[in-house]
Automatic annotation (TrEMBL):
GO molecular function: sequence-specific DNA binding
Keywords carried by this UniProt record: DNA-binding, Transcription, Transcription regulation
UniProt-listed InterPro entries: AsnC-type_HTH_dom, Dimeric_a/b-barrel, Tscrpt_reg_AsnC-like, Tscrpt_reg_AsnC/Lrp_C, WH-like_DNA-bd_sf, WH_DNA-bd_sf
Signal peptide: none
The protein's name: Transcriptional regulator
Keyword Transcription regulation tagged: yes
SMART domains: HTH_ASNC (SM00344)
GO-annotated cellular components: cytosol
Highest taxon in the source lineage: Bacteria
SUPFAM superfamilies (UniProt xref): Dimeric alpha+beta barrel (SSF54909), Winged helix' DNA-binding domain (SSF46785)
Source organism of this protein record: Leifsonia poae
Length: 147
């Protein structure tokens, strides 16, 4: 939103949709304390401006067949970031990744079918990427969404 800041009503609309991406426009309007027409107009603007980039379902990883998860940190050759980003997008088990600053360059959330599948991704697939210098893996025993 170049030059434009979200106001309190925009924030309430975003919060309502983060809580329930399937909420009706009536429910969103009620949560934001505005009319349906106002909520619809604001929602369209938030979509057009890229504040809201899409709608998705929250999925339980274990119940959906991805019972083994880990956070993987990587040190990489940053000059190859664009190629690495495309490669990471192509690995189905990589659910999320981010370029970060600090002791490592990239952090990934890897969700796999089982430990054998997780091992394949972490110990074979990721190290085979030329720009990856090293990785560290932290297994997830329990994870919780805050929203």
């Amino acid at each position: 939103m170049e030059g434009r800041r979200m106001d309190e009503i925009d924030s309430r609309i975003v919060d309502a949709l983060r809580a329930d991406g399937r909420a009706s426009i009536t429910a969103v309007a009620d949560a934001a304390h505005v009319s349906r027409a106002n909520a619809y107009t604001r929602l369209a603007r938030l979509l057009d401006e890229g504040v809201i980039t899409g709608f998705t379902a929250k999925v339980d990883p274990a119940r959906s067949g991805r019972g083994s998860s880990a956070y993987v940190t990587m040190r990489v050759e940053q000059s190859s970031w664009h190629e690495l980003r495309d490669r990471l997008r192509s690995i189905p088990e990589v659910e999320h990744f981010a370029l970060v600053g600090g002791d490592f360059d990239v952090i990934l959330l890897v969700r796999a079918r089982d430990n054998e599948d997780l091992r394949r991704v972490v110990l074979e697939e990721l190290p085979a990427i030329p720009s990856v210098r090293d990785t560290k893996t932290s297994l997830i025993f329990e994870d919780h969404d805050t929203r």
